[in-house]
Amino acid sequence: MMLDRLAGNETLKESVARMLEARRLTHSLLLVGEPGLGKGFAARCIAADYLYPAGGPAAGALVEGQCSKAVAKAGDRHSGRVETGLVREAISLEGMGSGGRYLVGQVTAMRREIFNTGLSAAGRAVLLYHVEQMNEESANALLKVMEEPPEGVLFILTADSLAGVLPTIRSRCVSFALAPVAPAQCAEYCAAQGVDPAEAALLAELYDGQIGTVLSAAQDPARRGRVEQAQALAEAAARQDSYAASTLLAKYEKDRSGGAALLREFGALASAGLRGSPHCPLNGAQAGRALRLADEARQKLERQVNPKIVLQLLAARLEET
Questions:
Q1: pLDDT tens digits, 256-290
Q2: What are the residues whose beta carbons fall under 8 Å from the beta carbon of 156, sequence distance 6 or more?
Q3: Average model confidence (pLDDT) across the chain
Q4: What is the pLDDT of residues 132-180, one digit of tens each?
Q5: Helix, strand, or coil here: 167?
Q6: Which of 231, 230, 236, 232 is nearest to 319 (CA)?
Q7: Same domain, yes or no: 165 and 25
Q8: Are 6 and 38 in contact (CB under 8 A)?
Q9: 274 within some domain
């Protein structure tokens, strides 16, 4: 099964495998979990196993995301269309509007496609990523097809949290929660994908086994640089060296978004310290206080408070950790 490629989450894999084997898979699944846990990857694997039980090139292409896509233009509800991909039996949707919101034209285009085109023997799969980004209009358009779907169509939805999904959508799905894997398993998996083993071990601890986040960070030089800066800031906090912390944070006094991004990485590092990670120089109460201070400072930056004041105050308060 393609779903065997998903690390951990044995309950999910066993449940879906039994459903597929008995051909009793519900027509709507909802995969829920924090960003970086592989919800989209799991959705594509399930779709591939549903459409192509024997595997093959089409199954591999689907797992890689080479399927058709429903697109539309903001402000034009009649602009929706399906762009044909390598795998025609699967259609994916992801919000294209302001803030990542779904456009009703995308949903109506998908609906039109699956009702008006003939099914192959394999059936059809519809992948809807981040359905918490649906507004009432796009959700109502989706409900019209989920309530009476064409035969052979499987809907697989993903969301960061169950609470963010509209109840009308949630009630029509069987939900599964994805969980992080152990950091050691995460590091091993990511190293097998080509990440330097030492870096994989650090990032797996930092992101608490979130494989997708580790792979993304390892492939993003800018983010990797922020991780290194966060480590330097943690070392300064551990030494109670406000001068070193102030010097480092001063670089972000005119870069509000960069400063907020740095503090997110610093917060992740402090969280790892709370879990006892050897990769963080902060631990125990010291890590907990640093995490709280970083979160408070990040929220102030996001509320447009003067970044110079916020960051220099943070540097001074880190001396007390």
A1: 999 999 999 999 999 988 888 888 888 889 899 99
A2: 28, 29, 31, 43, 46, 47, 125, 126, 127, 128
A3: 89
A4: 999 888 999 999 888 888 888 899 999 998 888 989 898 889 899 998 8
A5: helix
A6: 236
A7: yes
A8: yes
A9: yes
151 and 234 share a domain? Answer: no
**pLDDT beneath 70: ranges in the chain:** 23-26, 117-122, 321
In a domain, 201, yes or no: no
State which residues form the domain around 119.
2-177
Can you tell me whether residue 27 is helix, strand or coil? coil
Q: Are residues 103 and 245 in the same domain?
A: no
Helices 256-274/197-206 angle, 10° precision: 90
CB neighbourhood size of 31 (10 A):
25
**Model pTM?**
0.78
**Which token pair is 77?**
């509800």
**Residues 117 and 21 reside in one and the same domain:** yes
Of the candidates 320, 309, 307, 226, the one whose C-alpha atom is nearest the C-alpha of residue 269 is 226
Confirm whether 184 is domain-assigned. Answer: no
Round to whole Å and give the CA distance between 125 and 2.
Answer: 15
How many structural domains are present in the chain?
2
Measured between alpha carbons, how far is residue 30 from residues 52, 159, 194 in Å? 20, 7, 30
Q: Both 16 and 163 in a single domain?
A: yes
